[in-house]
Structure formats: C-alpha cells, structure tokens
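Q: A reviewer asked whether we had any structural model of the full assembly, not just the individual parts. We don't, so I'm hoping you can provide one. Inputs are below.
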Amino acid sequence: MQKILGWRPDTCGCRIRFQYDTDSKTVAADQRKPEAVLELVPCEHHAGLPMRDAYVAVWEENDRKNRACTLASESTGTPLADIEWSIDKDRVVVIKSPPGAGPDLGIALAARLGARVEG
Ligand SMILES: [Zn+2]
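A: Here is a predicted structure for the entire assembly that you could use as a starting point for your response.
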C-alpha cells in the first residue's frame, strides 16, 4: 500500500513529502530515496534547484549535521541532545564546543565532515 510521509529537516526550512510503500521496511530517514519525493517546498537556501537536486542537498546537509553531532557527543561524552549546532551561510555545520572537547574534535570534524567547532 502506498502512503505519504512528510519530513521537515531541522537543518533548513524545506518541506518534503514522500510516497512510500507500507509493505517495504525501508522508510527510515536515511533510506528515503530521491525517487520517492512527491513534493518539495524549498527554503531560501534550496530554492531554484530541481526537486531531486534540492532533496539530495537537504539530505546531505542533514546527514552531515547528524554525523557531526554524533562525533562530538561520542568523543566528549556529552549527551547527543546537549550538542549545540548551527549551519553557517556556506552550509558548513558549526558545532558549539562541548565541555571537555580538545583540539582533536575540531580536527576530526573538519577532516571527516568539513564541519568546524566554535566557542
Ligand atoms: Zn532547504
């Protein structure tokens, strides 16, 4: 059976609707395929792109943010929910330095995810 699923990423203001098959178990956010996007109402950052390209960009940013937060959490023992982050005008993920973070965190974030630490 086909169902519609909405997604509002926390990394930008896009609104996305997917169609998915309820018989399939692959509806997790990290497995949503661009082919399944029915509608994308773009935010200011993703306006002007073809829908599929906008979706890929939104997904990539959201994934990069999630991975940066997880890395910051795991390397400092800070609960994931307490990691503060933002995205700058160049769409770079910025992690607010958690307590106990050493210089290694900034190096790892930059090398693996192009992200940076501030504060
Ligand atoms: Zn967007």
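A: Points you may want to mention in the reply: The pocket of zinc ion is lined by residues 12-14, 42-43, 45-46, 58 (CB under 6 Å). The mean pLDDT is 90.
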